[in-house]
Amino acid sequence: MSIIITVSNQKGGVGKTTTSAAIASGIFLAGKRVLGIDLDPQGNLGFCLGAGMDNPYTVLDVLKGTVPVQDALFKSQYGDLLVSDITLSSSGLDSVKGRREYILRDAIRPVIDQYDYIIIDTPPALNLLTVNAYSVSDFLIIPMASDILSLVGLAQLKETIDTVRDTFNPGLNVLGILLTRFNARTLLSRDVLEMAEHLANQINSRVFDTKIRSGVAVAEAPAHGESIFSYNPRSSAVKDYLAFLDEIAPEIHLKEVSDNG
Question: Residue 198: helix, strand or coil by DSSP?
């Protein structure tokens, strides 16, 4: 049975897709079977993991049931992908009758046991797509930039998590809050850390020990068609993501990630 991890925050620009891509590629490079699912209409997860813009099928085809999930899989150098594009923003899933919150779970059921990990990237919104991701997931990771604006809306995020736990997925576990663009020398980052720890306590979770520092390598790597681990392994941010992988999946041998990257 696969472990399903969703990376989510309704605030944009917090490193959500970068984190999703780092988890998916890092776990794959460590020898695990990985499926990445892009539920963001911007389609950036696919781009980060090497998918082009001319894919015959997207995750929307799978969600609507017009294409079997097996036929929609894109085989990337970092595992399998269900890619997305802008059509997902006007998907019409709200009009689906019945169990709308389980559309994703039902759609991927035929392949769910073929992977060790399934990583889901979500849109910067708390909408039906996000709820579908929460409803099928074992774990939720919340990336949060180290600035005050990233704290806005976290009360609504807590409410959504509580609703999903109460109604659709009582087994949803918030694995933790990941602070990105972190600078331990600034008062702002330390203040955000304190507030993030307060929120983590409210949702029975934690702030990860690993904090992700700023680094241009994580932004440049997709444009060069590489994972962050092969593009610039000496980058401070890349080293942080390696430490983060070890923290969330300690059975992964990080030497394998570095050697295969």
Answer: helix
> Residue 225: pLDDT above 80?
no
pLDDT digits (tens, 9 = 90+) for 147-185: 877 777 777 888 889 999 999 999 999 999 999 999 988
**Residue 15, token pair as written in the block:** 């490193």
Q: Helix or strand or coil: residue 77?
A: strand
Strands (E), the chain: 3-7, 34-38, 74-76, 79-82, 117-121, 139-145, 173-180
The better pLDDT of the pair 248, 252 is held by 248
**Letter string b/e over residues 38-67, b meaning 16 or more CB atoms within 10 A of that residue's CB:** bbbbbbbbbbbbbbeeebebbbbbbbeeeb
Residues 6+ apart with CB under 8 A from 58: 72, 82, 83, 84, 85, 87, 88
Query: Is 87 within 8 Å of 60 (Cβ atoms)?
Result: yes
| Cα–Cα distance list, 61 to 11, 12, 199 (Å) | 26, 25, 37
* Spatial separation of the C-alpha atoms in residues 216 and 44, rounded to whole Å: 17
140, two tokens: 């939720």
| Residue 197 bridge partners (DSSP) | none
Contact at 8 Å (CB) between 228 and 218?
yes
Report the chain's mean pLDDT, rounded to a whole number. 88
Asked if residue 258 lies in contact with residue 229, where contact means CB atoms within 8 angstroms, the answer is yes
Separation of alpha carbons 210 and 228, rounded Å: 17
- Distance, CA of 172 to CA of 110 (rounded, Å): 21
Question: What is residue 104's predicted lDDT score, i.e. its pLDDT?
Answer: 95
CA 175 to chain CA mean position, Å: 12
